[in-house]
Amino acid sequence: MTTAPAELPPPAPGRLRLLSYNIRSLRDDRRALVRVIRACAPDIVCVQEAPRYWRPEGQAAWLARRTGTAVLAGGGRAAAGPLLLGRPGVRVRAVHDRLLPKTRGLHARGFATALLELPGAAPFTVTSCHLSLDAAERRRQFDLLAGQLRYAELGVIAGDFNEHPDGPGWQALAGRLQDGHGVAPWGGEMTSVPENPYQRLDAVFVTPGIEVLACGVPHGLPGVTGADLRAATDHLPVLAVLQLPARQEPAGR
C-alpha cells in the first residue's frame, strides 16, 4: 500500500478536486463513507452505484446533504446508477445524462454527464460511468464514452470501468485521454478490494487541455483512515487534483 503525501496541491483559481467513488448503493457503513468523502474535500464527486430502486432521488439527496454537496446530474433513474455531486460554486450549464443500450439479462447502465463551470475557468464536462461486467458490452460502452466529450473542448471521464489497464477498452480510452494516475501518480494505485487492494478498476481520465497535478487512492490523507476505507464500500476512491485553463473572454471585450 502506497502512503499519500501529507498535502495535495493547494487551492488555486481553476483548480479542481475530483473524487470518483463506487458506493455500492449505500449498503455498507454510510457514516464511514461520508467521513471519507468529506476528508477528501472534493469539488465534484463522480459516484457509481448510487441507489437505483428504493427512493433513489431521496437517497442521493441524503448523500449530498451529508457531504456538503448538491446533486448535479445522473442518479438512479436518470443514468442507472452514476451520479454527479458538486460543492457550492460549481455551476451547471447543461445536463447530458444517457441511458445505454441494454443487453438482455444484464444490468441497465448509463452515463451521468454535466457541462460545468468554476469561477474564472473554461467550461468542461464531467462524466461518471460504471461499465459492464460483460466484456463485449463493456467494449461497446467504452466506445460510447467518447460521445460524452462533445459538449466542450475540456472533459473528465471518471468511474468504475470493470477492466484492468491492459484491457482493450481501457487502452483505447488511454490512447486519446490522459490516465490521471499514470500522468501524476499520488497515493495508491489499486482500487479493489479495500481489504487487500490487488487490482485497478477505477480511474480518472482527462482531455489533454487539463493538467493533472495528482491522482490516486487517498491513503494517508488527513482524515481518511484505513478503517473507514474498508467499511465504507467495496471499492477504494480515486482523488484527482486537476488544473483547468482560464476562461477566454470573447474578443473585443
Give the SSE map.
Blueprint: E1 15-22, H1 30-40, E2 44-48, H2 56-67, E3 70-74, H3 76-79, E4 83-86, E5 91-95, E6 98-99, E7 110-117, E8 124-130, H4 135-145, E9 154-160, H5 168-176, E10 178-179, H6 180-183, E11 202-206, E12 211-216, H7 226-232, E13 238-243
What key attributes describe this structure?
single chain; 253 residues; alpha+beta; six-stranded mixed β-sheet; 23% helix; globular
Question: Can you describe what's shown?
Answer:
With 253 residues, the protein is of the alpha+beta class. It is 23% helix and 28% strand. The protein contains seven helices and 13 strands. It has helices at residues 30-40, 56-67, 76-79, 135-145, 168-176, 180-183, 226-232, and strands at residues 15-22, 44-48, 70-74, 83-86, 91-95, 98-99, 110-117, 124-130, 154-160, 178-179, 202-206, 211-216, 238-243. The strands form two sheets. Strands 5, 6, 7, 8, 9, 10 and 11 form a seven-stranded mixed β-sheet that branches. It has a six-stranded mixed β-sheet with strand order 3-4-2-1-13-12. Helix 1 (30-40) packs across helix 7 (226-232). The longest helix is centred in the first third of the chain and has 12 residues, at 56-67. The chain starts with 14 loop residues before the first strand and ends in a 10-residue tail after the last strand. The mean pLDDT is 94.
